[in-house]
């Protein structure tokens, strides 16, 4: 689209994901543009505004966020705030007449997710959760193989998403802001992939959490989580996620006829796909090199095109809510030491 016809977004919260990934993605997008900023740090915001050609009058504070209602160039918001703020700012944006593109995890509870869905429905605004992997080329290639039954019957999914999370003062280590530890932050990628690649919903969950009692980073949140999801067909997902493992990000989906692997999976770039199957009676492993992909632009353009066509996004609020139901069940299972039925 010519720049004037692109969907205008407010970027709400100018932290790492917004500044390092999404603002550059806006610059590469053909369907979206940044028209306003919302930040608690005016100096930083003005600097970024100058860099992206955003007028000073379009730089807002959290207190005057609701003035976005009168900012006609802004049709949607991209919310990149700490998890506990997603619900409040989604509701406020919808009430200001804006469509909402919200970072994962959608919120800190099922109840908050429902409030967000209800507020957007009431205001007749779209709500999309930023599940970038669902727009990524290698993930989409796997989905195609699954649907064409190239893997046979799906049997098992095994995945890990770990990162070494340092600063104990970061919001990610505060339960009230983060909602939990690695599970809602990075373990959610394993959970979401198990669901969207299989096309099934889990019916039973077993969860276990652990934290080193002497590590100040884990006073409020878990350090590591393990979970098993059981699906109606007999397919199972076994996942681990921690804030103390070094950047292990992989998935393996095993069917009766073949397996596929992403290693790394869930990274911003450099995702690699391998397929293992029998060829002439012998085990064969093939690496499939796909054209380099741009998940951030893909998800952003999808949201912008949905706004233009008034079409429901591929990863709507209900997708975020379903993951939150499973996350709550994993924590419940870990607390009670028994499987939880969904
Ligand atoms: P950061 O801590 O880097 O940024 C969060 C920003 O939120 C801050 O810079 C600040 O912006 C604003 N903010 C407002 N109130 C607070 C507060 N009380 N404490 C801290 N920050 C506050 O976080 P990330 O960018 O890493 O994460 C933001 C969101 O994006 C999270 O929900 C996270 O899960 C998600 N995310 C998604 C990723 C993906 O790949 N899809 C990757 C990384 C994060 P300002 O100074 O402008 O007010």
Largest sheet: 9 strands, mixed
Beta content comes to 15-25%
Indicate how many domains the architecture comprises.
2
The number of helices is 9
Ligands (ions, cofactors included): NADPH dihydro-nicotinamide-adenine-dinucleotide phosphate
CATH architecture of the largest domain: 2-Layer Sandwich
Q: What is the string of helix and strand elements?
A: EHEHEEHEHEHEHHEEEEEEEHHE
Q: Please, could you describe this protein's structure?
A:
- The protein is an alpha/beta fold and 342 residues long.
- The chain folds into two domains: 3-130 and 296-316, NAD(P)-binding Rossmann-like Domain (Rossmann fold, 3-Layer(aba) Sandwich), CATH 3.40.50.720; 134-293, Dihydrodipicolinate Reductase, domain 2 (2-Layer Sandwich), CATH 3.30.360.10.
- It contains nine helices and 15 strands.
- The strands form two sheets. A nine-stranded mixed beta sheet has the order 14-13-12-11-7-10-9-8-15. Strands 3-2-1-4-5-6 form a six-stranded parallel beta sheet, sandwiched between helices.
- Strand 11 and strand 12 form a beta hairpin.
- The termini are far apart.
- 47% of the residues are buried.
- The model has no long low-confidence stretch (mean pLDDT 97).
- Bound molecules: NADPH dihydro-nicotinamide-adenine-dinucleotide phosphate (NDP).
- The site of NADPH dihydro-nicotinamide-adenine-dinucleotide phosphate has 19 residues, from helix 1.
